[in-house]
Write a structure and sequence with these properties.
Largest sheet: none
Number of helices: 18
Strand content: under 5%
Helix content: over 70%
Structural class: mainly alpha
Distance between the termini: 6 Å
Order of helices and strands: HHHHHHHHHHHHHHHHHH
Radius of gyration: 21 Å
Number of domains: 2
Length: 393
């Protein structure tokens, strides 16, 4: 039989959160999903030829409704940090990473909602519902399902054309999960050779080149490429590894946090100027944003900063960002159809934005509370029990 001490140790491991909630990180996630939502609502208005940004200062319009790619970059940096710090907390070091355990935890978090989404999208495609039918030019339903399940939606779109909106958002999941297919192998074996930092640094260096003007001939791959997003994930990983060894003083926390906030504000708030300086053409704007985000993350992790109640809605949206991300296009398309039925009145545009943000937040909360989180806990618990039953006496 398993000893009581081993059982308690394994049970506590299965039941505890893989990483404590960090308000600063959740606020960054809230900011990131806000930019994604604003961008996707904006795209619907653009397709419907609603000139709602006419007369608006260019930088204000870009910052508010054209920063979806920046939002995803912030997500990538956060993801790399959380995965690495969780790995260190769970197994003590990268070289001790349990491959089966890593993949099992990742599957429990990602797969339930992804599979449900794909099932719903398949049903809507087969029913011929407008905005949900995958065209034969892009390979049809079977090809889209294969791409989603093997994490190359981004490649499919770059070679065949854009998929419907609910499918298109999976491009970022393709980048992220392709990285995590190889991450535990790098963590387990490359770290033993003391090469994990150089490997991650190589991703950081390559990232801007993958986003440079050399790839503008393919606008989809220019935005959706694997290496174009993996540098932010790698920066998040490096941040977690650094914090495991270095403790920032209060003065250093203030300095690092301020520098990170300034870097993010520059790219998010002065993106037009950044592009004029050549940072966009060289792919460095995304790098600066990811570095700034990682600096803010580092301070949030070591300071234990708590968010004021005033920011509670953004905090909650950040906590449900995965659920919101995978489901928000249903709300965007549904509410936008009502907007079209109303005759596209200009006065209704601000209400449209506000309504979609609120409704997507509510939907994300419901999906998380009643489906994805229970499934996550159930799959993790089942995996831990299988590990326990296989543990030698």
């Amino acid at each position: 039989m398993l000893s009581a001490s081993k059982w308690n140790q394994k049970s506590s491991l299965a039941g505890r959160p893989t990483c404590p909630r960090l308000d600063g990180v959740d606020l960054l996630r809230g900011l990131a999903i806000f930019y994604v939502l604003m961008n996707h609502i904006n795209m619907q208005l653009l397709f419907a030829k609603v000139p709602y940004t006419a007369g608006m200062p260019r930088q204000l319009a870009v910052s508010l409704v054209w920063s979806g790619q920046f939002g995803v970059q912030i997500f990538f940096a956060i993801s790399g940090f959380l995965i690495t710090s969780t790995t260190l907390r769970r197994w003590g070091s990268l070289s001790e990473t349990d491959l089966g355990g890593f993949y099992r935890i990742r599957f429990a978090r990602i797969a339930p909602l992804l599979l449900l989404l794909l099932a719903i999208l398949s049903g809507l495609h087969l029913a011929g519902v407008k905005h949900f039918v995958v065209s034969q030019e892009t390979g049809g339903l079977g090809r889209a399902l294969l791409a989603a399940l093997t994490f190359h939606i981004n490649y499919l779109e770059a070679t065949r054309g854009y998929l419907p909106g609910n499918w298109d958002i999976l491009w970022s999941l393709s980048v992220e999960e392709m990285f995590y297919i190889f991450f535990p192998l790098i963590a387990r074996y490359v770290s033993r050779l003391k090469l994990v930092v150089p490997v991650l640094a190589a991703f950081v260096i390559i990232g801007p080149f993958a986003r440079s003007d050399a790839f503008r001939h393919n606008p989809v791959w220019y935005e959706y490429s694997y290496l174009g997003g993996m540098d932010a994930i790698a920066l998040g990983c490096l941040t977690a590894l650094s914090l495991a060894r270095v403790e920032l003083s209060h003065k250093m926390q203030w300095a690092v946090g301020s520098a990170g906030a300034v870097a993010m504000a520059f790219i998010l708030g002065l993106s037009v100027q950044a592009h004029k300086l050549g940072l966009g053409r060289n792919g460095l704007d995304m790098t600066i944003l990811a570095v700034g985000a990682c600096m803010v993350i580092a301070v949030a992790a070591q300071s234990g900063w708590r968010s004021p109640r005033l920011l509670a809605p953004i905090l909650k949206i950040g906590q449900r960002s995965y659920e919101i991300y995978l489901t928000h296009m249903f709300v965007v398309l549904g509410v936008f159809q009502f907007f079209l039925m109303m005759g596209k009145p200009m006065w209704l545009v601000p209400v449209l934005f506000a309504t979609m943000i609120v409704v997507t937040g509510i939907l994300g909360e419901l999906v998380a509370r009643f489906y994805s989180e229970p499934m996550n806990r159930r799959l993790r618990k089942r995996g831990e029990l299988k590990t326990l039953s296989a543990t030698p006496v």
